[in-house]
Design goal:
This protein has 149 residues and is of the alpha+beta class. It has a single domain, classed as YjbQ-like (Jelly Rolls, Sandwich), CATH 2.60.120.460. The strands form 2 sheets. A 5-stranded antiparallel sheet has the order 1-8-3-5-6, covered by helices on one side. Strands 2-7-4 form a 3-stranded antiparallel sheet, with helices on both faces. It starts with a strand and ends with a helix. It is built from 5 helices and 8 strands, in the order E-E-H-E-E-H-H-E-E-E-E-H-H.
Length: 149
């Protein structure tokens, strides 16, 4: 199953927590065991799985990336957003998270973030959830419909 979510980013460089939206999608699809693959089809944005309990971690990540590829650096790319391309390349455009027991198998403090490096703008995250353990057909049909069979 492939779906897309759209995220309106709220700043030039920001980590937008998309964990609740991804969790809801997995719940709605009723996948018990499988893989959830996330892909961002943009060259100046990425996906990060990291701590979501302390917002200072996101700030630290963004500050270190800025130190590695400063916005005011000297770049050849004429559009003025070379720093954003470099940061997106460093974090990557995809992540795969196991699904166990119908839930994302994230660690206690982990969350999923869309990493924006050239915003604000509307971004797309392509989400592909694949079942790896088959269930009997009757278990995949909601109970209220099973009674009618």
């Amino acid at each position: 199953m492939i779906e897309r979510i759209h995220v309106i980013t709220r700043g030039h460089e920001r980590l937008e927590d998309i964990t609740p939206r991804i969790k809801e999608m997995v719940r709605r699809l009723r996948i018990e065991e499988g893989l959830c693959h996330l892909f961002v089809p943009h060259t100046t944005a990425g996906i990060i799985v990291n701590e979501n309990a302390d917002p200072e971690v996101a700030r630290d990540i963004l500050e270190r990336l800025e130190a590695l590829a400063p916005r005011s650096g000297r770049y050849r790319h004429a559009e003025g957003n070379a720093h954003a391309h470099i940061k997106a390349s460093l974090v990557g455009q995809s992540a795969t998270i196991p699904v166990e027991g119908g839930k994302l198998a994230l660690g206690r403090w982990q969350g999923v973030y869309l990493a924006e490096f050239d915003g604000p703008r509307e971004r797309t995250v392509i989400v592909s959830v694949t079942m790896t353990a088959a269930k009997p057909l009757e278990e995949t049909i909601p109970e209220e419909f099973r009674k009618r069979l």
